[in-house]
Amino acid sequence: MHKTPAGLAAAVLVLLVIPVPARAAGRGALLHAGDALTSAIAAESDRDEFTVELSEGAVLSVAVAAAKGGGLLLDLELQRPDRVVVDPGALLAGRGTGKLALKGYVVPAGQTGLWTLVVKPQDGTSGGYTISAKMKAPKPPSVKALALGGDGKALVEFTGENGALASVKIKVAAGGPLAKAQLLDPAGAAIAGTDFTASLALASFTLRSGFGRYAVELTGPAGATVDVSVKLKVPKPVKRKLALPPEGSLAAASLLVKQEDAGHDFVLAGANLRAGSALLVSGTGVAVASVAVSGATSLEVSFDVDSAAPYGTRDLTLVPPPLDGEPFLLPASLTVQAPDPTITSVTVGGDGVLRHGAAREITVTGTGFRSGGTYGFTGSGL
After folding, report:
1. Which residues of the chain carry a pLDDT beneath 50?
2. In this structure, are strands 298-305 and 264-271 parallel, antiparallel, or unpaired?
3. Which run of H or E residues covers position 271?
4. The pTM is what?
5. Degrees (nearest 5) of the Cα angle 186, 187, 188?
6. Residue 130 contacts residue 36 (beta carbons within 8 Å)
């Protein structure tokens, strides 16, 4: 994560939305600015989650309208990237009615990331609805007389997304020359092909490191000052009017796997399953080797289990392809067990013969023995 130099105002750009897992990972269905997505609340306990990616300083407005004649009474919840619920106060109007709106919510400083909109019913109602959103981006940064620190470095941060075109201009105001000028990706690594030390200008470079905080990194003599301006050209998404398909689901299952299993295959039953869906396993040590949807009601999955995978139950989450609604959680549906023990030899102590009334020590050797295990013999008398 980049650190912004003291006195430098963080400048940001609204980013759009990425389809990601919902209930298990805390993320919902894809929602672009300008979209109008139609879905439905099926029951009082139903919750629909939509994901938007926002930068600090962005302005978010959302409208949700129940289908005519459906009787759905709406509520809307706004969650920060850390899943803390935000109270928008008077900015949210229409709770408990068939039409509500969130107008002009400004994303606070330090809250760049994945935000969640949760559509909920009130008073036990259900029915269809349409949700849409508008997002206004703050301007990219333009900084004058930025002083390079004691280590001779400074960062100018901005928020970018895949496909955005970044242009940067630098003017050394005093104390130069610069030793290096380059772009860093959201992870803080230098981006290949962005060393513009010689020209002090970068023109229409395509960002390809995903959504996040990029940075212009400047290196030179300590105390040097520079003027930096960043321009971004972001391709506008196509506005869509789409009805989300019925959410996929899995039938109750009780799967057993064992440590050191490789390619353990299962067939799961479900409904509304779609090609391109993924399956997630909670916890560590169990990897999904492959998933194949063989039809709307059947899914084939193969697991690889690590030798140190913790014992116990795991949750499975069905993650649909983009725009196919929310993921479906199947709790406590997979259990990790220890591998079966094997016996390689049995040795009888003493003269090696079992006799009536004689005590003998029996040594059993093998693999996979664990504390607390039991053993037994066929027949009677032992």
Report:
1. 1-26
2. antiparallel
3. strand 264-271
4. 0.67
5. 90
6. yes
